[in-house]
Write a structure and sequence with these properties.
single chain; two-stranded antiparallel ribbon; 13% strand; Trna Endonuclease, Chain: A, domain 1; 376 residues; 5-stranded mixed β-sheet; alpha+beta
């Protein structure tokens, strides 16, 4: 252990200064990544629109162009360049067609209107923040607003009040624009909206783990909400694989995007005898109907996008790890007939067996955590 008695008297101030420096640097790095990403997507959208306008039959030509680009870019750069994403980039340019980037130290502005103007974008990151001050995920949320005047209002307030993406999403969801239009005290409402609520702040590490950023940088996408949850997922992975060779591990924290929302499924297996995917989702609270609805949502997505020819429809496993009340529920409602559902129930592991293992794993992990804490 370090002997603090030999530390200089001003050590604490030095340490505090370094901590603040690192925090500021991380925040700046997250902002710069988002600025470059947003500027790049704007430029991609602009080039798509430019090429579309050169086609004889614009609508048909545009869809063919996006289809071709989606395939080529996905093969070369990985996730994030599918048809839906490219359409979003095109919509981004159309919603913000006039973008000015400060390109000289003297403060002069240049409008990006030349096919080679991406050189301005790639030259230096800090100047981009002067225009793309919001992260890409904020612009994606703004694009969901159809009325231009409402979209402009939310953008202005997000910039003025320094809203995080979570704050922006909450204000849009609460119809802040419509409410303030009817309010007799608009100044008070605007002032109140500047105050962040608990959970609104997004830390630099969270900003870097934003799914949009991970796609842009083509980085591996894994996360855990807590050490206990992560450990439980690992234990359950090992347990299911030990039940026999029917379970084949496919993925962990499998991400899917529907409209502008991101979801993650904790575990994905393939069951060899049933010839189907099995989606397992861990909940740290008591089982609810909302959990069942969310699993059906996942299953419908998996059936449409992940199921391959010759496979049976996927099945879901909801694991509830509430203290003292571990439960496991299979979701079989999406199967096309009762015979197939009965076959699944015969072959799949007993729910009580999985719940018992979940409870046992949770108890061991909590006990280990307490032992570790007592040693410190």
């Amino acid at each position: 252990m370090t002997d603090l008695t030999i530390m200089p008297e001003n050590y604490e101030s030095i340490r505090t200064g370094i901590v603040e420096l690192l925090k500021a640097a991380r925040s700046a790095a997250a902002r710069n990544v988002n600025s470059i990403m947003t500027a790049t997507y704007w430029e991609i959208g602009r080039r798509i629109v430019t090429l579309e306008q050169g086609g004889e039959h614009r609508a048909e030509y545009g869809e063919q162009l996006i289809e071709q680009l989606a395939g080529d870019l996905t093969r070369q750069f990985g996730r994030g360049f599918g048809r839906a994403n490219l359409r979003q980039m095109r919509a981004f340019y159309l919603a913000w067609p006039e973008v000015q980037i400060r390109q000289t130290v003297s403060g002069e502005f240049a409008t990006i209107n030349d096919i080679n103007a991406i050189g301005v974008i790639s030259s230096t990151a800090p100047i981009l923040a002067s225009r793309f001050a919001l992260p890409w995920s904020a612009y994606v949320r703004l694009l969901s607003i159809k009325r231009p005047e409402a979209r402009s209002f939310y953008e202005t307030e997000a910039l003025r009040s320094g809203w995080s993406v979570r704050q922006l999403d909450r204000q849009i969801g609460s119809q802040f624009y419509e409410r303030i239009a009817l309010s007799l005290n608009k100044a008070a409402m605007l002032q109140k909206a500047e105050t962040a609520e608990p959970g609104d702040t997004i830390m630099p590490e969270e900003a870097i783990k934003d799914p949009f950023v991970l796609e842009f940088l083509d980085l591996k996408d894994e996360y855990s909400e807590s050490d206990l949850e992560q450990a439980l997922i690992q234990h359950l992975t090992d347990f299911l694989l030990e039940l026999g060779d029917d379970f084949a591990f496919v993925g962990r924290q499998r991400r899917l995007r529907i409209d502008d929302n991101w979801f993650r499924i904790d575990l994905v297996f393939f069951h060899r005898r049933l010839r189907c995917l099995l989606l397992a989702d861990l909940k740290t609270s008591k089982f609810s109907y909302a959990d069942a609805g969310q699993m059906h949502f996942y299953l419908n997505y998996a059936r449409e996008h992940w199921m391959k020819s010759g496979e049976n429809p996927p099945v879901g496993l909801i694991l509830c790890a509430e203290k003292g009340a571990a439960e496991a529920h299979y979701s079989l409602d999406n199967l096309p007939n009762k015979i197939l559902a009965a076959e699944y129930q015969t072959i799949l592991p007993n729910e009580k067996l999985i719940a018992a293992e979940l409870e046992r794993s949770r108890h061991k992990l909590e006990q280990r955590r307490l032992n570790d804490a007592s040693k410190k």
